[in-house]
Write a structure and sequence with these properties.
Elements: E1 9-15, E2 20-25, E3 31-37, E4 40-45, E5 53-59, H1 67-73, H2 75-87, E6 91-95, H3 98-107, H4 109-116, E7 128-130, E8 133-138, H5 143-147, E9 169-174, H6 177-183, E10 188-195, E11 201-207, E12 216-222, E13 230-231, E14 233-234, E15 240-246, E16 253-259
Antiparallel strand pairs: 1-2, 1-6, 2-5, 3-4, 4-5, 7-8, 8-16, 9-10, 10-11, 11-15, 12-13, 12-16, 14-15
Helix pairs in contact: 1-2
Length: 263
Amino acid sequence: MSVITWDGHLRIDHLPDRGTVAITLLTAEPTLEVQLRNGLVAGFVAADPEGPPTFVSVALRDNGVPDDVAELLGPRVAAAVADAIAAGGPGGWLELDLGEVDGLAEAWAPYRAVALEPAIPAPRGTLGAWAGELWTRLDLAGWAGALRGPELRFRSGESGEREADPPAAQEIWRLPDELAAAVGVAPEVTWTIRPLAGGAVEIGLAVRPAGGTANAVLQAGLDDGSQHWETFEPDPSGVLRARLVASGDPVGVRFRSESRRSA
């Protein structure tokens, strides 16, 4: 495997007529680009499985970059992007040091896995760093196919007791060990999907506590740009559960640690 050398030359292009900002970390190496979600595209060097993003294009929201993307870009790049947007200009150049390049690589690692191995859903999540926390991303393999099954019935909104419909799909997936340890859970995540009325989908997530005291809780959220997170809460049996509802096309699910901070 060849060693890629990064010189840290980063260009910011503000495209107000398109409502986007593009960030390019210069390289002569071949790059693979992937749409991570609506309004977010990223590219990575095909020959560098541990490298930073070479390209990020993000749609602006409320005249700014979405909060999660700003966190992934790091404080100095995010501040330079915000300045370019506020000035209304075309952008400019930034020189990153090696630590900042490594920080981008670490932060974007779960997305890098999506870009470089899109056809191989990993059985274990790739660890990333996010604003002092840990995160990863789950691609729900087989989601679309399962929901197209002809025998599926959506869960109605009827009141009263009724037996829950069986899930359309159910699998076990693994959190990175570092993330599981940080939030005090076993790494195995059981996920289920069930169709709901109107084309929506219920995603059920369950993990078991690993014992001991953790300084952070586990949260999950759809990778759809909504910035909404659900904290895993114990059910009567002690299993930690979270429930997400997605509408439209299948999207990934992100997990992160959220540290308990003293008031």
